[in-house]
Design goal:
CATH superfamily of chain A: MetI-like
Oligomer: heterodimer
Number of strands of chain B: 20
Number of helices of chain A: 15
Largest interface: A-B, 18 and 23 residues
Radius of gyration of chain A: 31 Å
Strand order of the largest sheet of chain B: 6-7-8-3-9-10
Strand content of chain A: under 5%
Strand content of chain B: 25-35%
Number of strands of chain A: 2
Largest sheet of chain B: 6 strands, mixed
Order of helices and strands of chain B: EEEHEEEHHHEHEHEEHHEEEHEEEEEEE
Structural class of chain B: alpha+beta
Shape of chain A: flat
Shape of chain B: elongated
Order of helices and strands of chain A: EEHHHHHHHHHHHHHHH
Number of domains of chain A: 1
CATH class of chain A: Mainly Alpha
CATH architecture of chain A: Orthogonal Bundle
Radius of gyration of chain B: 25 Å
Number of helices of chain B: 9
Chain lengths: 325, 364
């Protein structure tokens, strides 16, 4: 350890000089990197850089590229030229696009409603104390963990027009005499897709809402029951308002995912029968990749953007209002 | 307003026997405080009265009605929780009005009751605020307000002051007492703070390990504790306990240990006569010891050495060594003593307690 410099302070008369410790001078040139890291602005930029690069590479570039393609007549093997909004106008007047557009709303609306209702119900059940509680809570996430393609394949076999085990079961117990057209009828197929989506997405709702429920003090429920509220009133007047912020976040998240869903429909129905179950994402794939009309495919997928933007904006605004209240 | 009767009340949680054979008769308009250390069963007892915990066995009567199987809402009680349990998304007004709305009271009546309660508690200007915009003391008032608007037969308080700072706690304690005097409603109050118990309760119920140890008026419990636990729990600083042996000598009974030999006051001799050569625990409160003067009989004094001096302003606490034990003495602030000073301490004879060394029961 370096010795502190000392100096002799002049004293009056014959008294001996007193030694006083002086502060150690700072090193003339501190290490450059240290100085660099001490600057908050530079450090912030440094820490943000990886995220910015990743976002630019995987979000911004594909998005800008998508916009460019949508405004061009690009196809496989042809870079294309600028055609303005022609692709958008063409798709808007296309009957299959119109079906896919309506389907996307129908599918998102009902799947979200079912996921929210059943997820809330499951969360309320799982919020109770019971034996094996942790195991049940963990196993509930299984549908969410299994890859969508895999689980949807299983569902496809279960509702297959020829080999459906569900049909066999219903037939065996005498509930039906003719096979139900699960995937061979457009309306049935759409509802099948909604059921599978609900089955897959409900655990996410349940586990997130359960986490929200556990932040609500049990004292509030006890106070409400002493105040004379029955179990429905306790849910509606106490639990639900306190769970709203979590619910909104989950719903926004789910709406985004469901609206842009691709895998489930692609594997379960492939958009059929007769294009009746196409969503915007599957139809965009069909036109853009399968048919090779990249410009039109990009235009179809961009139709999702303003809708999702408005949904997210409204819901986040509502959330902010709740937080401020 | 109603009396509350607990008969042979028991609560089991799997293998844990939390409340054991509790029998208690709480009179109409009485303020009863259940006090004891953590895990003594006081809160469980209160929650059973509220209907928030099921009863394993026994009976609870509120106003001559057995309420064992009644849900909380039908017991006509109101409860103030430790963490207030105010609904965070409702205004103060809505919090207070919630119970009345659930019971379908007319709007005008709700408004009148909330206004009246707000006036009593001095929270009129807070009615439009949300709970998170309130201080701890204000939340406490709102929680009390929510209870009083209902005009219940019984108030239950579950450690309502424990989240407040020391100064506010004293202030709220006084307000609660004033409120009880005004409303004259039966109140059952749970606390682990013996000062709250002493100051608030018409009667105090001391509990330990699920058992009731003693029921009595505060000064009775303080002055005539039934056992060593009650003696040590009630009073601050706690009662001093000295392990002694009973001995004969000079025509009297004595208790002695290293550094201490005291003559047993005549009125206590009868109970201690059968304990010759046996161990008994001597108990003496810090304020029942004082520096000896010429007027104090020598055989009720002992030598002590000052170890720590704690001036409190109103008085001074001395930790002194008597033989092998350290005891606390409360003396007048005018007494000037320093560490290592030797003093002679006198025991106030009528305030000396003796406890059986094995059973810990009082030998009063």
């Amino acid at each position: 350890m370096a010795k502190h410099p000392r100096s002799l302070v002049p004293t009056v008369g014959a008294a001996p000089p007193i030694e006083v410790a002086l502060p150690r001078p700072r090193p003339a040139a501190p290490w450059r990197l240290t100085r660099f890291l001490e600057s908050e602005r530079l450090l912030a930029a440094l820490l943000l850089a990886p995220a910015v690069v990743l976002l630019a590479l995987f979000i911004a570039y594909p998005f800008v590229m998508g916009v460019w393609l949508a405004l061009s007549d690009a196809s496989v093997g042809s870079p294309g030229t600028f055609v303005g909004l022609r692709n958008f106008v063409k798709e808007w007047n296309d009957s299959i696009f119109q079906t896919a557009f309506q389907n996307t709303f129908f599918y998102t609306f009902w799947a979200t409603i079912f996921k929210l209702t059943l997820g809330m119900w499951l969360a309320l059940l799982l919020n109770r104390q019971f034996r094996g509680m942790r195991l049940v809570r963990a196993s509930m996430l299984l549908p969410f963990i299994v890859p969508t393609v895999l689980s949807t394949f299983a569902w496809r076999w279960m509702v297959d027009p020829t080999f459906s085990v569900v049909n066999w079961l219903l037939y065996s117990i005498g509930l039906i005499t003719n096979k139900l057209p699960f995937l061979s009828d457009g309306r049935w197929a759409m509802w099948c897709a909604i059921v599978v989506n609900t089955w897959r997405g409900m655990p996410f709702f349940a586990i997130t809402l359960l986490a929200g429920l556990q932040t609500i003090s049990p004292d509030l429920h006890e106070a409400a029951s002493l105040d004379g509220a029955n179990s429905w009133q306790r849910f509606w007047k106490v639990t639900w308002p306190l769970l709203k912020p979590v619910t909104i976040v989950v719903v926004v998240f789910s709406v985004i995912q469901t609206f842009a869903d691709f895998q489930l429909i692609y594997v379960l129905t492939g958009g059929g029968p007769a294009n009746s179950t196409h969503l915007l994402a599957t139809y965009a794939y069909q036109i853009g990749v399968a048919t090779g009309l990249l410009g039109e495919g990009a235009a179809i997928s961009l139709f999702m953007f303003p809708v999702l933007f408005v949904v997210v904006w409204f819901q986040l605004r509502y959330l902010r209002r709740l937080e401020g209240a | 307003m109603a009396q509350v009767v607990l008969k042979d009340l028991n609560k089991m949680y799997d293998d844990v026997h939390a409340v054991k054979d509790v029998n208690l008769n709480i009179l109409d308009k009485e303020f009863v405080v259940l006090v004891g250390p953590s895990g003594c069963g006081k809160s469980t007892t209160l929650r059973m009265i509220a209907g928030l915990e099921e009863i394993t066995s026994g009976e609870i009567q509120i106003g001559n009605r057995v309420v064992n199987d009644l849900p909380p809402k039908d017991r006509d009680i109101a409860m103030v929780f430790q963490n207030y349990a105010l609904y965070p998304h409702m205004t103060v007004y809505d919090n207070m009005a919630f119970g009345l709305k659930m019971r379908k009271f007319p709007k005008a009546e709700i408004q009148k009751r909330v206004q009246d309660a707000a006036e009593i508690l001095g929270i009129q200007e807070l009615l439009k605020r949300k709970p998170r915009q309130l201080s701890g003391g204000q939340r406490q008032r709102v929680a009390v307000g929510r209870a009083i608007v209902r005009h219940p037969q019984v108030f239950l308080f579950d450690e309502p002051l424990s989240n407040l700072d020391a100064k506010l706690r004293v202030q709220m304690r006084v307000e609660l007492k004033r409120l009880h005097n005004r409303l004259e409603t039966t109140a059952i109050y749970v606390t682990h703070d013996q000062v709250e118990a002493m100051t608030l309760g018409d009667r105090v119920v001391v509990m330990k390990d699920g058992w009731i140890q003693q029921v009595g008026e505060p000064l009775e419990v303080y002055g005539r504790p039934r056992n060593r636990f009650v003696a040590g729990f009630i009073g601050s600083p706690a009662m001093n306990f000295i392990e002694t042996t009973v001995a004969d000598g000079a025509g009297a009974l004595w208790v002695e240990c290293a550094g201490l030999r005291l003559r047993v006051p005549a009125e206590r001799s009868a109970r201690l006569a059968g304990k010759r050569r046996q161990a008994v625990v001597l108990g003496i409160r810090p304020e029942d010891l004082h520096p000896a003067t010429g007027a104090d009989p020598v055989d009720l004094t002992c030598e002590a050495v000052v170890d720590v001096v704690e001036p409190l302003g109103s008085d001074i606490l001395l930790d002194v060594k008597v033989g092998n034990c350290v005891i606390v003495v409360r003396v007048d602030p005018s007494v000037r003593l320093r560490q290592h000073d030797k003093i002679r301490l006198a025991f106030t004879p009528e305030r000396i307690h003796f406890f059986d060394a094995k059973t810990e029961e009082s030998l009063q």
